[in-house]
């Protein structure tokens, strides 16, 4: 059915009201103006009592000094006539279709928060968020996503701390250049030393052979000189000696060739390593510890990055969930169990933004209720009030509001309990019964 609005209301002797008549604008903002203490808020309290039931009944509903009981008369756009009058202010709901009517019927289309907007505005952040989630129907899914995100963020925070600690530990470890990557065994060094000494021993033998051949050649030279003096006698012997000499010279040449390229290997480094093996292994272990610490830090960083990706995916899923929901206002969302509008939480919103958000949410709670009551609109300047009224009208919503002042923005002015569209009469006579309305 079409949303139900207030066509007209007539109020008398309620709280500060003496006599008020109002025909609110069907779509848009109807502002009740006047100074403080004149009865503006009493109009809203009277509407709430008439339509919302005795839970909205003022503690002292009768106007001070009046001998006539309160009289409330409201006509709704669906044809219902709602009245409270007489000594007990009993409710009477008249249905033009003849259906049985009463508070139960009113409760089917009247949204409680539309009568009591401050109840929503004064609720805590989670209560406001729960109200919105009730409207869009994604509360369980959103809370589950929020819990998953919270768990992942906490896990990432822990891993991030571990990664930072391990990276810091790795950075603090010493590192030595030109050091083997594996620990050195003393037995291996000794074996290598013995192999070098063995090779050096072979070299020494070859050098001794050169010396031996050199000595033998010298002796043969002396023999040759001696034999040459006796050439006639020893010609045969000379020839033999020459042959021996030639053979020796050949052996000498070979020995010299072998010895020419020989180079002894130094065992100084090995001897030094053997002497300093504990210090060297200490440096190797330090390097291994640093490399292990860096590898551990990389592993934790990889875990951290993977959790970041999961968190981002969950947040995208959360954004899509809200974007696909039927929100009462664009840019309205929920973060950390709190309402946000244009990225701001409730306490950072302007007063006009708070009213706009509250009105939109309350309207969405029960689309059949086409009106909302708003008190104290003086927090808005004239331009903001105009923009708010245009938004209300665009939404097809009826808003009845109060505002301190008597400017052109006011639809009626309340002064001393009277609306300015009523001729003041004797206070002892009921105005509406006289036919004023």
Keywords:
437 residues, alpha+beta, Rossmann fold, five-stranded antiparallel β-sheet, 12 helices, 53% helix, disordered C terminus
Overall CATH class of the domain at 6-110 and 366-434: Alpha Beta
Structural category is alpha+beta
What kind of sheet is the major sheet? 5 strands, antiparallel
In the CATH hierarchy, what is the superfamily of the domain at 6-110 and 366-434?
A: P-loop containing nucleotide triphosphate hydrolases
Contiguous uncertain segments of 5+ residues = 433-437
Tally of alpha and pi helices: 12
List SSEs in N-to-C order: EEEHEEEHHHHHHHHHEEEHEHEEE
The averaged pLDDT comes out at 87
Strand percentage lies at 5-15%
How would you write the strand order of the largest sheet? Answer: 2-1-4-5-6
Distance between the termini: 30 Å
What overall geometry do the principal axes of the alpha carbons give? rod-shaped
CATH fold-level topology of the domain at 6-110 and 366-434: Rossmann fold
CATH architecture of the domain at 6-110 and 366-434: 3-Layer(aba) Sandwich
Instruction: Report the C-alpha radius of gyration, rounded.
Output: 53 Å
Helix content: 40-55%
Question: Total strand count, please?
Answer: 13
């Amino acid at each position: 059915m079409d949303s139900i609005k207030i066509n007209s209301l007539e109020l008398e002797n309620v709280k500060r009201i003496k006599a008020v008549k109002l025909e609110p604008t069907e779509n848009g903002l109807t502002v009740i103006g006047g100074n403080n203490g004149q009865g503006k808020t009493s109009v809203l309290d009277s509407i709430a009592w008439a339509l919302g039931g005795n839970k909205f009944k003022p503690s002292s509903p009768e106007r001070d000094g009046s001998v006539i009981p309160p009289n409330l008369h409201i006509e709704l756009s669906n044809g219902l006539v709602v009245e409270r009058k007489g000594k007990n202010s009993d409710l009477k709901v008249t249905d033009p279709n003849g259906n049985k009517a009463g508070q139960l019927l009113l409760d089917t289309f009247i949204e409680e928060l539309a009568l009591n907007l401050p109840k929503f505005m004064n609720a805590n952040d989670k209560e406001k968020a729960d109200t919105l989630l009730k409207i869009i129907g994604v509360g369980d899914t959103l809370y589950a996503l929020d819990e998953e995100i919270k768990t992942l963020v906490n896990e990432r925070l822990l891993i991030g701390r571990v990664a930072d600690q391990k990276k810091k530990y790795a950075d603090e470890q010493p590192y030595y250049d030109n050091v083997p990557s594996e620990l050195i065994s003393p037995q291996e060094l000794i074996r290598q030393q013995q192999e070098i000494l063995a090779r050096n021993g072979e070299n020494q033998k070859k050098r001794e052979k050169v010396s031996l051949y050199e000595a033998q050649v010298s002796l043969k030279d002396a023999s040759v000189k001696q034999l040459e003096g006796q050439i006639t006698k020893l010609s045969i012997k000379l020839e033999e000696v020459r042959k021996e000499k030639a053979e020796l010279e050949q052996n000498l040449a070979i020995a010299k060739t072998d010895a020419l390229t020989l180079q002894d290997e130094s065992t100084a480094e090995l001897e030094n390593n053997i002497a300093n093996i504990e210090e060297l292994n200490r440096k190797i272990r330090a390097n291994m510890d640093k490399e292990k610490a860096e590898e551990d830090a990389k592993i934790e960083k990889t875990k951290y990055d993977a959790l970041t990706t999961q968190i981002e995916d969950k947040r995208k899923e959360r954004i899509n969930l809200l974007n696909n929901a039927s929100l009462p206002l664009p840019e309205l969302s929920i973060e950390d169990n709190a309402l946000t509008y244009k990225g701001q939480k409730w306490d950072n919103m302007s007063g006009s933004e708070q009213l706009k958000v509250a009105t939109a949410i309350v309207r969405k709670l029960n689309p059949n209720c086409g009106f909302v009551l708003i008190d104290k609109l003086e927090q808005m300047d004239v331009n903001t009030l105009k923009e708010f009224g245009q938004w209300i009208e665009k939404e097809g919503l009826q808003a009845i509001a109060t505002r301190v002042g008597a400017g052109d923005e006011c639809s009626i002015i309340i002064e001393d309990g009277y609306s300015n569209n009523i001729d003041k009469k004797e206070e002892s006579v009921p105005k509406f019964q006289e036919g004023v309305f």
